[in-house]
Structure formats: structure tokens, C-alpha cells
UniProtKB/TrEMBL annotation:
Residues 126-221 form the NB-ARC domain. WD repeats lie at residues 561-602, 603-644, 645-686, 687-728, 729-770, 771-812, 813-854, 855-896, 897-938, 939-980, 981-1022, 1023-1064, 1065-1106, 1107-1148. This is WD-repeat protein. It comes from Gloeobacter violaceus (strain ATCC 29082 / PCC 7421). Keywords: Repeat, WD repeat.
């Protein structure tokens, strides 16, 4: 008798490949017809078929059997008849051809082609190239308006079933290649892909891996936008050269996918690689056939005989857009009679640009103005917005009249979201606009420069970036050529301002704003520029220093300025979605209007970082949790503190309201969760069970359960009524930072240091899925209001959107330059907010993944200090991107070094005193000559922010530690990277050389310190013991001890030789951010979040003196070489010099604030809150 069990017959029927294909095509047709091409979700399909989502998924996967009646009803729901070849029994062990995998689609801005006619031959050729010959790169070429975009959409619709993934992207606004590659990689890869490479080359290689692994169809429309006009065909715009490398690699390297691009010009890479038997092809579109062109003429209501219609189609070479435009003229000027138009003998078609020029010349002045504004907006815009832009003001009926005329002329289009232009029309209008603006500024005859903005400060971030790239910068580049130098251009712009002030002071318009945006782009030193008595509209000034600028009696309406908040650790939307609350490291909470980013309230009262903010369900109050150990309740309408809840020992990390608003839960450093009566502030219960810091708490939607998670790597579920622990969920391997329930309460999500998010069933405690893909700690998680997706924020500087049912990563949002600590969905789900310690809040469109708005704080924080060897100069680095040199005796800033593109987080001085090193968030290390201020070289090999640099004692090596988890050793003389030290599993925050230079220590966010041999790169010791990240390491004078300071509020002293921990200093240290040994080795100084500098006796471990206090945390400290002075840098925007012997503060240095000395006397267009922010950032207002 055989031991092999008999195969059991599997019941029911599944779809065959034919059946799956028929159903898939019917579903696609339904989506195009009824859902604007958007994919029907499982819930939509469930509603349509009458089956629950599990049954729907089972039918579509076609792996398990269902009864025949189910398949029959499914087919009927899509208007199909079930045929015998559509289904079969799923016999166990039988080989069967599985249906293709479900196509993931992202149609982006693809146009509707439901009324597409003709092009049958071209479609057949292209589909054969994609499906049968499996070409890797296909270019669809042709003149503007010929129909390339519509044909490409139709091709993609017809071919999508043969691909696993399909993504459509428009290149109309010439998006940065790095951003596009990031989108393509996430979509074409898988949700567990590792963190993205930083450079273009690495991202292209990663994309090619994805294209090999999955069969993808990538469609890139309007590729001509990447190419430079007026030069040899195929020449790329500045900054777009990488696209050529992308095309070359996609065409050359074997893979299973296809990239289709449309363009008016053939890229050189396509020309070099194409061939009739090669995997790279191009198809140049001719005009429409006569019968196809006649469809347009009939639709436009033209009248004429067959010969006349044929002649008209031939005359305009079958170009659809040209036929539509000229048809409008025939209808208006010749009553629709083709014969009369042809009799004029003017029907000469010399290309779409000439036709557009002819049509443009016929426009009224009002129509021209609107054409320019539509090109400036670069996406559909409603009439009311256009009316707000237009100066001088025009009535609403006049605006609508001009728009209707443009519609009749077929120069613009009207959609559900507003009026827009076809790409070829927009490109022509933009080029015409740029040329006219250049002529005006060059000649000093201002017209359009006054009536139109080159950049809209209040536009969505991605639109403003496109305006800068395609309008503002081309204007500047052309004027630099015409005028010969930047100095001459600045002189011309100053003359334009003076002319405007003399001729029409305060006249509404854009002269002042355009000028200021141009100067900011040129990085002109704006100190003492005069904009008084002018309208300065639409100036984008979040990143611009305005030292001493004269805005007296200036109209500053519609400008965007920096805010005065600090590093962001918590964000929350109000229940009605109208407000955003932000808690920062300045100990404040600010409330902004979500619609326009205008600050409404600033709530002060905490004395340390605000770690969490949470609105009550009624939206009238909100809670804040702080590292000062308190929870506060605030009135959201007026910003008044209603109550302070005390009871936790140590920091409070999280706060959450119960759904009915009666309870407030909080958690923190003392390993407890507390329940408070939200009305009275009384502590009702303390829940104990966690064995470490509790980082997050969340109520279930029905209020019955409370979840908590923390440093012990567990999630605990509590009965909210009794406080009893119902379950402990285990599965994460490292601490958990965030926990949240889904809106229906059926899922629980937890985010961890182990770089994963887990989805749990709270009823059973079972882990349903693990979402992997982040490259560092996952610090925050939030469900969308509909529960279908969730968002995560990470220390890898990204936000990810995930589909909750499949666990697929839908999008990776990558514009943050530093770690993301907090995220929150708008109650309607269309917007996501994220906050970062770089004083940044970003608002994202959850559908497109585009960044809509950035709120930028600009308090100038000094992040690093270092003394010169002679002790007479102090060097500082700050988040305003500058390195400053200070005279220690006078406190004067003697030199400012400019060149970094992001904040400077670390500085070091070489032993020779002449060479400086600085590094920061722009991923570069810069070497400077301290005497001349010249940047000698820039070192670029790190792929993450650089947190620490240090020179070896002999100056021959420079070490750097980065967010990419590596330390690098460099030759500072040549800039060559000598070695890369790998081993840490997270950021390296601090590096330090031993006194003899033979050893290097590194401290990391992974909670360990390592000691390396600088000659061999070998890791000699791993020092483990801290329970949280290490911020600083320092060697003792004799090299026998290594000190490490951590955010676990301890300092450890290690024996270098053995790696043994000799002593732990814990006496009220606070979070330790910086360490420094005194030159005699007897004292160890520490700077922490308790706003003080503490001096410790190394021999005894006793705190002998406390210096300060600063008014915010101390991030960097340094001893002068002779030990007589200790410098400290703080988030309070100051540097202080102390006498370590007496504790006296000897001197205080203050960095110029962003708007220091900016004169706002008599300025208008600002709200009281805006003006208060500007004054807090240094602006002045004289009393008249």
C-alpha cells in the first residue's frame, strides 16, 4: 500500500486564461466608461457583483474554486455571457496555465480617449512592437498637435493586459529626473524594495532591476519638453541631461519591459539604438487620413464638398490640432464655408508654431492676457482664480467672455477642474511670454512684467517648481546673455524698481515680486535693497535672507514668508480639517489654517520639546504632550491653556483622546499609560506592564480598546474601561514608535525601529501582514479615513503610502531632507501632512503624491561649534547653510562662508588652524581655506546627511559620519576617500579620533559605539549598553577612555582597550547631545536638552558644575585649547562662552535672524499674525 496520500479533488471552478482575459477587458471598458479610467476597487466590485470582497478576490486570483453560479453572476455584472472555455475545475497537482497577474495602473495625467478615431494602422504596428516583438524602447514622433498623446494612451489601453504594471507620466513641466525615477522605481518594483539610491546612476540601475523583475509599460509623454529649442536637435535642457542616459540604458540593457515616449524631436539615444530588427523602434506620425480628418470638420460644423474637405485636410497635413484651430476661424470669418476660405488663397501650413503665431496675432488683448496666465498656471485653473491674477482688475463677465472665445478658437480646453492649454499651445505661449518679458526688462519698457507674475508664490509646490524651471530661470538666463553679467542685470532690475516707484508707486502689479524672485534666484546679497512704496506681490521668500531690506510702505499681499517654528515632532489636523496643529522643539504649538498655511495661533507654556498634539473630537480643544513631563489642554479657538496634567515621571511621548472625548490617554518615559478625565484633568488610572518607554497610545474607534507600544518592542491592548491588559502583541524585533487603529477598528498598525510596519487583528492578536521597504526606523503610521491605505514616515527621509489590503507600496514621497517624525491625514483623506526636524511641514496630495505646500520655519539654529588651535577664533555651522568665523575676544563675526545647499550640522578645524571642514544635509563635506574663505574642494560620496566631521591629530585624515550608516576617511589634501567603515545599522551621529590618530570612534542611532583601526578600517570594539541612540562620542586626553552620550539620558565611560563600561553617569543629565573633554582630561562637559552644560569629574563621575541656562537644548559644546573657555551652541539661536572655573557666562554671540532689520514700517498686505512672525524673525516696525 502506497504511503502517498490520494490527491483530493478540489471543489468548484476557476477562471481559465481566456475567461480571466475576457473579464479583465470588460472591467477595463467599464472603468473607462463609468469611472473615468480609475481602477475599480475590491469594494466597488463587491457592490457591483453582490459578492463579499473575499469572494471577489478569489474569482480574480483564479487559484481557488468557486461555484459556477458565482462565475455566471460575475460575468453578467459586466455584460458578458459565461462560455465553457471560460472556466475549469482546479484539479490538485494538475499543471494549469495561470492567468496573468492583475495589472497595477497609474494613469497620471493621461487624456480621455473614449472618442478616439482612426490610426488603426499605426496602432497595429505599435502593439506588435510592444506585445509580439517585446521592444524595450519605442518613440512615437511627430509635429505638435498631430495626436501623439492620444495615440499613446490608446496604445497603452489596448496593450495593458500584456503587462503587470503600467504607469503614465507627462514630462510637460520637465520634472527633475531624480524625482521621476523615484516614482517609477516604487511603482515598477515591489513594496519591499530597499531604500532608494541618492544619485541618478544608482536610481537608473535600480529601475532596470525592476524592469527585469516585472513586465512594466512606462509611458513618458511630451519628451520634447526636455530638449532645448533653438539648438541642434536632441540637445537637452540644462539639468535634463540625465534623461538621455536613462533612454540609453533602457534601450541597451536586456529587460522584460517597455518604455514608450512621445516627442516632437527624436532623442539622439533613440536614433543611435533603433533598427528594424532591434529592440528600439520609432514611429513618425503623419497626418490623419482624409476620412479621419473629415470627422473633425463635421464636428466643427463646416460645410463644403468632398473635394473642398479633402483639400482642407491636405492643406493642414491632417494635423488634428491645426484642423480644429483653423476650423474655428472658418466658422467665425466665413460662416463655416470651406470654399470661401480656400478662395482667399491663404491656406498655407508652415507648422503648428506658425499657425499658433497667426492665431495669437488675431487675439484680443484680454485673450492674450489670459493665454499668458494659463501658461503660467501650468495646470487647469478656474475662472475666479484667473480673475484674481489679472491686473488691472477685469469683471467676471469679461473674463468668461474671453475664455469662451478662446474655447471657440480651440486654443484652450475646459475640463472638470478648470481651463487649460494643450502642451504644444502651452509651450508656444510660454516661449512667447519669456521672450516678451526679456525684451521689456532689457529695454526698460515695462508692461507684461507689471501685469503678469513669473512665479506664483502661493501655487502648489510642484507647480511653483515648474514655473521657476520653465519661466523664471529662462528669463534670467536670457537676460544674463543680453546684459553680459549678473552685476549688470542687478543694476537693470534696480532701475526698473526706481522707475516703477517714480512713475506709479504702489500701483497694483507684479514688478516688485518679479524682481525680488529674480534676485533671490540669482542669490543676490539683498541687504539694504529698497522695495519701499511698491507692490511686491507673489514673492516667494521662505528660503531668502532679507537682512535690512526696505519694505516700508510696501504692499506685500500674496507673498510667502518663512515661519518662526522649530523642528517638528508632531502634526495633527482638526476634526473639520480647517486647522493644522504643530508641536516643535521650541516648546511651542502653532495652529495654521490648512487652506492657505497662514498661522492663526501660537501656544506657549511648555518648557521642552512638544512630542505630540491631538485634537478632541469636538475640535474645540486639543492636547499636547511634552518632554517637560506634562500634558496640557488648550482652547483651539484662542490658544489659551486650560489645564496642565502632571503625574508622569520624565518625558511624555504621546497623547490621544477617546472617540467620545471624555478620556485622554498619555504615555511616556516612566513606562506607564495614564488615563485622564478630559473635563477635569483628574488622573483616573495608571496602566502598568511595559518594561520601557511607551512611545505611542491610540484608542479604538468604538473607545473600548486602548493600544500602547514602546521601547520593549510590544503592543499592548487594554480594556479602556477597566484598565486591564487584554493582550500583548509580539513580533517586532526593535522598539515600536507608533501605533494606530484603522477607522473600522478591524486592524491595528504598528511602526518600528526594525524598519517595518505590522498590521494586526486586534480581536485575535494575529499579525496579518508585515510592510517592509523603509531604509531606517519607521517613526510614524496613520490610516487614511477610508481605511484603504495607510501612510508611514521614516528616518530615511521618506513618507510611504501603502494599500492596506494587499500591503503594496503605492507611492514614496521624497522631498524631505531629513527624518520624518510625524504624519497625519486630512479628515477627507485627500491631503497628508508630514513634519520633520528641519523646521518643515509638508502637505501632500495623496492621489498624485505631489507636494502641495511646504511650511518652512527659519529660526537660525547654530548646530555646531569648534575652536581654532590658537583659541582666538570660534567656527560655527548653522541651519541657514552658513559657516561663520567669530572673534572670541570681541564677539564679532569676521567671515561668512557660503556654499552649502542645506543646513550645516558639523564643523571641524584642522591642526594647522588654516583648514576648516564643514558638512550637513546637502550630503557633502566642504574643505575651506579659513584665511581667504575659499572653498578648496567638495567631497561627495555619502548618500545621506552628514552629522559629524573630525580631523585626525596630524591633519592627514578627515573622518565623516553620515545618515547612510557609514563613516568615511578622507585625505583632506586631495579629497580622495581613503576608506569606508561599515557596520552600524543606522545613522552615525558622531565621530572622534583618538589622540594618537590610530583609532576612530563612532556613535550611532543604533545605540552602539564602535572603535575602528584607522589604518586597516577594521572594527575593533562594539560598545553596547545604551538603550537609545548615541549623539556624541569623545576620547579622553590619554586615549584610554571613550565617553558616549545618549538620548537615554546617560553618559557612559568605556575602557578603550577592553570595551568594558567603567562608569555610567545618570545624575539629571537629560538627553545628552554633545560631549567634550577638558584639555587636561580631568573634566567631561555635556550639553543636553535640559538647556544646560554640565561639568563632570572624570575620576569620580560626579557633576561638579552646571553652566547656563540656555533657553533651549544645547546641541554642541567645545573647549578652547587652553581650557579657559567653553563654548556652547543651542537651539535658542545663541552661542555662549563660559568660564568653566567660575561658571560665569563671558560672552553671547547671536546669529543674524532671517529677516534681521527688515523694515516693515507702514507695510500692508500682512495679517497681524504674519507681521508678528516677521518681527520674531528680526523684522522691525518703526512708530510713525
Amino acid at each position: 500500500m502506497s504511503d502517498t496520500p490520494k490527491a483530493r479533488r478540489r471543489r468548484g471552478y476557476r477562471l481559465t486564461s481566456q475567461g480571466w482575459q475576457r473579464l479583465h477587458e470588460a472591467r477595463c471598458r467599464t472603468e473607462e466608461r463609468e469611472n473615468a479610467g480609475e481602477r475599480l476597487t475590491l469594494e466597488d466590485l463587491s457592490e457591483r457583483t453582490g459578492f463579499d470582497p473575499n469572494t471577489v478576490a478569489k474569482v480574480l486570483k483564479a487559484e481557488e474554486g468557486v461555484d459556477k453560479q458565482t462565475l455566471l453572476r460575475f460575468f453578467i455584472a459586466f455584460g458578458l455571457e459565461l462560455e465553457s472555455d471560460d472556466y475549469a475545475r482546479p484539479e490538485a497537482g494538475a499543471a494549469s496555465s495561470q492567468p496573468p497577474r492583475e495589472v497595477r495602473r497609474d494613469w497620471g495625467e493621461a487624456v480621455d480617449v473614449s472618442l478616439f478615431h482612426g490610426r488603426g494602422g499605426e496602432l497595429a504596428i505599435l502593439e506588435n512592437w510592444l506585445v509580439e516583438e517585446r521592444c524595450r524602447l519605442v518613440a512615437v514622433l511627430g509635429m505638435g498637435g498631430i495626436g501623439k498623446t492620444a495615440l499613446a494612451v490608446k496604445l497603452a489601453r489596448q496593450s495593458e493586459a500584456h503587462f503587470e504594471r503600467l504607469i503614465w507620466r507627462s514630462l510637460r513641466n520637465a520634472p527633475p529626473l531624480a524625482d521621476l525615477l523615484a516614482e517609477l522605481i516604487v511603482f515598477a518594483g515591489d513594496e519591499q524594495a530597499p531604500a532608494l539610491p541618492t544619485g541618478i546612476e544608482g536610481r537608473i540601475l535600480r529601475l532596470l532591476e525592476c524592469l527585469r523583475r516585472n513586465r512594466c509599460l512606462l509611458v513618458l509623454d511630451n519628451a520634447e519638453s526636455l530638449l532645448r529649442g533653438g539648438e541642434q536637435a536632441g540637445t537637452y535642457r540644462e539639468g535634463c541631461e540625465g534623461y538621455g542616459e536613462l533612454l540609453r540604458r533602457v534601450g541597451e540593457v536586456p529587460h522584460a519591459s517597455c518604455l514608450v515616449l512621445t516627442s516632437r524631436e527624436k532623442p539622439a539615444e533613440v536614433a543611435a539604438l533603433e533598427g528594424s530588427s532591434l529592440p528600439v523602434r520609432s514611429l513618425r506620425l503623419g497626418g490623419l487620413q482624409e476620412s479621419e480628418g473629415e470627422v473633425i470638420l463635421q464636428a466643427k460644423g463646416l460645410r463644403g464638398g468632398a473635394d473642398e474637405r479633402r483639400k482642407l485636410v491636405e492643406c493642414y497635413r491632417g494635423n488634428p490640432l491645426a484642423l480644429m484651430i483653423i476650423s474655428t476661424s472658418i466658422r467665425e470669418l466665413f460662416d463655416g464655408q470651406i470654399r470661401e476660405f480656400l478662395a482667399q488663397d491663404t491656406a498655407v501650413f508652415n507648422g503648428i508654431a506658425n499657425l499658433l503665431q497667426q492665431q495669437f496675432d488675431r487675439l484680443t488683448e484680454a485673450e492674450k492676457q489670459l493665454m499668458y496666465w494659463l501658461a503660467i498656471h501650468r495646470e487647469p485653473v478656474v475662472a475666479t482664480q484667473l480673475r484674481e491674477n489679472v491686473v488691472p482688475a477685469v469683471s467676471a463677465p469679461k473674463i468668461l467672455e474671453a475664455l469662451e472665445s478662446l474655447l471657440r478658437r480651440s486654443l484652450i480646453e475646459r475640463g472638470t477642474t478648470g481651463y487649460s492649454q494643450q502642451p504644444v499651445v502651452m509651450e508656444y505661449t510660454t516661449e512667447h511670454f519669456v521672450e516678451r518679458i526679456c525684451d521689456e526688462v532689457h529695454k526698460g519698457t515695462i508692461g507684461l512684467f507689471r501685469s503678469h507674475a513669473l512665479l506664483l508664490a502661493q501655487a502648489k509646490d510642484y507647480i511653483r517648481a515648474a514655473q521657476s524651471r520653465l519661466i523664471l530661470k529662462p528669463v534670467i538666463d536670457e537676460l544674463l546673455v543680453r546684459l553680459g553679467s549678473q552685476a549688470h542685470l542687478e543694476q537693470r532690475l534696480a532701475a526698473v524698481l526706481a522707475q516703477q516707484r517714480d512713475e506709479a508707486p504702489l500701483q497694483p502689479g507684479y514688478v516688485g515680486g518679479n524682481t525680488l524672485n529674480m534676485l533671490a534666484t540669482l542669490q543676490t546679497e539683498l541687504r539694504h535693497w529698497d522695495f519701499s512704496h511698491l507692490a511686491v506681490w507673489q514673492a516667494y521668500l521662505q528660503e531668502v535672507n532679507l537682512y535690512g531690506v526696505n519694505f516700508s510702505h510696501t504692499d506685500l499681499a500674496r507673498c510667502v514668508f518663512a515661519q518662526n517654528f522649530g523642528g517638528v515632532f508632531s502634526v495633527a489636523f482638526s476634526p473639520d480639517g480647517e486647522q493644522i496643529a504643530v508641536g516643535d522643539d521650541n516648546s511651542e504649538i502653532r495652529l495654521w489654517r490648512a487652506a492657505d498655511g497662514q498661522q492663526q495661533l501660537s501656544c506657549q507654556g511648555h518648557t521642552d520639546w512638544v512630542c505630540a498634539v491631538a485634537f478632541a473630537p469636538n475640535g474645540q480643544t486639543f492636547a499636547s504632550a511634552s518632554q517637560d513631563g506634562t500634558v496640557k489642554l488648550w482652547d483651539a479657538r484662542i490658544g489659551q491653556c486650560l489645564a496642565t496634567l502632571r503625574g508622569h515621571i520624565g518625558w511624555v511621548r504621546s497623547a490621544a483622546f477617546a472617540p467620545d472625548g471624555s478620556l485622554l490617554a498619555s504615555a511616556g518615559q516612566d513606562s506607564t499609560v495614564k488615563l485622564w478625565d478630559a473635563a477635569t484633568g483628574r488622573c483616573l488610572a495608571t496602566l502598568q506592564g511595559h518594561t520601557g518607554v511607551v512611545h505611542s497610545v491610540a484608542f479604538a474607534p468604538d473607545g473600548s480598546l486602548l493600544a500602547s507600544a514602546g521601547q520593549d518592542s510590544t503592543v499592548k491592548l487594554w480594556d479602556a474601561a477597566t484598565g486591564r491588559c487584554l493582550a500583548t502583541l509580539q513580533g517586532h524585533t526593535e522598539p515600536i514608535r507608533s501605533v494606530v487603529f484603522s477607522p473600522d477598528g478591524h486592524r491595528l498598525a504598528s511602526a518600528s525601529h526594525d524598519r517595518t510596519v505590522k498590521l494586526w487583528n486586534p480581536a485575535t492578536g494575529r499579525c496579518l501582514a508585515t510592510l517592509a521597504g523603509h531604509g531606517d526606523w519607521v517613526s510614524a503610521v496613520a490610516f487614511a479615513p477610508d481605511g484603504r491605505s495607510l501612510a508611514t514616515g521614516s528616518l530615511d527621509r521618506t513618507v510611504r503610502l501603502w494599500e492596506t489590503i494587499t500591503g503594496q507600496c503605492l507611492k514614496t514621497l521624497q522631498e524631505h531632507t531629513d527624518q520624518v517624525f510625524s504624519i497625519a491625514f486630512h479628515p477627507q483623506g485627500h491631503t497628508l501632512a508630514s513634519g520633520s526636524p528641519t523646521q518643515t511641514v509638508k502637505l501632500w496630495d495623496t492621489e498624485s503624491g505631489q507636494c502641495l505646500r511646504t511650511l518652512q520655519g527659519k529660526t537660525v539654529t547654530v548646530l555646531a561649534v569648534a575652536f581654532s588651535p590658537h583659541g582666538q577664533t570660534l567656527v560655527s555651522g548653522s541651519d541657514d547653510r552658513l559657516v561663520r568665523l567669530w572673534d572670541v575676544r570681541t564677539g564679532e563675526c569676521t567671515r561668512v562662508l557660503r556654499g552649502h545647499l542645506r543646513g550645516v550640522t558639523t564643523v571641524a578645524v584642522a591642526p594647522d588652524g588654516r583648514t576648516l571642514a564643514s558638512a550637513g544635509a546637502d550630503l557633502s563635506v566642504k574643505i575651506w581655506d579659513a584665511l581667504s574663505g575659499q572653498c578648496l574642494r567638495t567631497l561627495r560620496e555619502h548618500t545621506g546627511s552628514i552629522r559629524s566631521v573630525a580631523f585626525a591629530p596630524d591633519g592627514r585624515l578627515l573622518a565623516s559620519g553620515s545618515q547612510d550608516g557609514t563613516a568615511k576617511l578622507w585625505d583632506p589634501g586631495t579629497g580622495r576617500c581613503v576608506a569606508t567603515l561599515r557596520g552600524h545599522t543606522s545613522w552615525i551621529r558622531s565621530v572622534a579620533f583618538a589622540p594618537d590618530g590610530g583609532l576612530l570612534a563612532s556613535g550611532s542611532q543604533d545605540g552602539t559605539a564602535r572603535i575602528w583601526d584607522t589604518r586597516t578600517g577594521e572594527c575593533l570594539q562594539i560598545l553596547a549598553g545604551h538603550t537609545y541612540l548615541i549623539c556624541s562620542v569623545a576620547f579622553s586626553l590619554d586615549g584610554q577612555l571613550l565617553a558616549s552620550g545618549s538620548q537615554d539620558q546617560t553618559i557612559r565611560l568605556w575602557e578603550v582597550q577592553t570595551g568594558a563600561c567603567l562608569r555610567t553617569l545618570t545624575e539629571k543629565t537629560g538627553m545628552v547631545f554633545s560631549l567634550a573633554f577638558s584639555p587636561d582630561g580631568q573634566i567631561l562637559a555635556s550639553g543636553s536638552n535640559d538647556m544646560t552644560v554640565k561639568l563632570w569629574q572624570v575620576g569620580t563621575g560626579r557633576c561638579v558644575k552646571t553652566l547656563g541656562p540656555h533657553t533651549s537644548l544645547v546641541v554642541s559644546i567645545a573647549y578652547a585649547p587652553d581650557g579657559s573657555t567653553l563654548a556652547s551652541a543651542s537651539l535658542d539661536e545663541t552661542i555662549r562662552l563660559f568660564d568653566p572655573a567660575t561658571g560665569a557666562c563671558l560672552r553671547r554671540f547671536t546669529v543674524e535672524r532671517t529677516y534681521e532689520g527688515t523694515d516693515l514700517t507702514g507695510a500692508t498686505g500682512l495679517s497681524d499674525a504674519q507681521k508678528a512672525v516677521l518681527i520674531a524673525l528680526g523684522a522691525v516696525e518703526r512708530i510713525l
